[in-house]
Specification:
alpha/beta; seven-stranded mixed beta sheet; two-stranded antiparallel ribbon; 9 strands; 42% helix
Length: 224
């Protein structure tokens, strides 16, 4: 695939979307369908890794694939409508397009369900690649020539660094700023509302990143 002058990758859950209410409802539906107790409130505090990792907490290994398929079947009816865009999500994607770039989504979520979320919330990604977690995200980031990858989890940081992309972390998910910094995030944002102004500075002078010290609008270099 041809490398675009600017391609920015985004994670989905807790980066672009607050999927906690919808995922909680999906787990509750799964519990009702299977007759198995699932602590849905606890499950939504662990978003990021592949679905199977959570399913293993509640079902024996020999049923993980089967139950994961049931969850994915239930997901569209229970999880999509209840999910909200994170503050600044649409504006972040729009900022990439305004800069003449492409915005792609690379997520561990099942790709058809990821696309349902983006369509429902009118977030205009140029490509969506699902079922990739942590270092495996580098496959899609390299294929699409991503220069930057934005995520909320240490797994996203590892994916960006493996791909050779600039790791921009938002402290809006289960991992705090210190944890993201320790994992190797090169830029830290409080949330996506800070992203458009940061992107303006990045486009104007990409060689300054990563940089030491404090960068305004909630963006902090990881070495700060």
């Amino acid at each position: 695939m041809a490398v675009h002058p600017l391609t920015v990758g985004f994670d989905l859950d807790m980066t672009l979307i607050d999927s906690r209410p919808g995922i909680k409802a999906a787990y509750e539906a799964l519990a009702a369908r299977t007759g198995t107790y699932i602590d849905a409130d606890a499950a939504v505090t662990r978003l990021g890794p592949p679905l199977e990792q959570e399913i293993r907490r509640w079902f024996p290994e020999e049923r993980v694939a089967e139950i994961s398929d049931v969850y994915r079947e239930l997901y569209p009816a229970h999880a999509v409508v209840g999910t909200l865009a994170m503050p600044g999500a649409r504006e972040a994607v729009d900022a990439v397009h305004a800069a003449g770039g492409r915005a792609i989504v690379v997520t561990a979520k099942y790709e058809p369900n990821a696309k349902l979320h983006l369509s429902h919330l009118d977030i205009a990604a140029d490509a969506v690649i699902g079922s990739l977690w942590a270092e495996a995200k580098a496959e899609a980031l390299r294929e699409h020539g991503a220069h930057v990858y934005v995520g909320d989890h240490t797994g996203d940081v590892r994916g960006a660094r493996t791909a050779g992309a600039l790791s921009v972390a938002v402290a809006t998910g289960p991992c705090g700023a210190d944890e993201l910094r320790a994992a190797g995030a090169q830029v830290l944002l409080d949330d996506l509302t800070a992203f458009p102004s940061w992107l303006d500075r990045y486009v104007a002078d990409p060689d300054r990143y990563p940089a030491g010290g404090v960068d305004g609008d909630g963006a902090r270099a990881a070495s700060a």
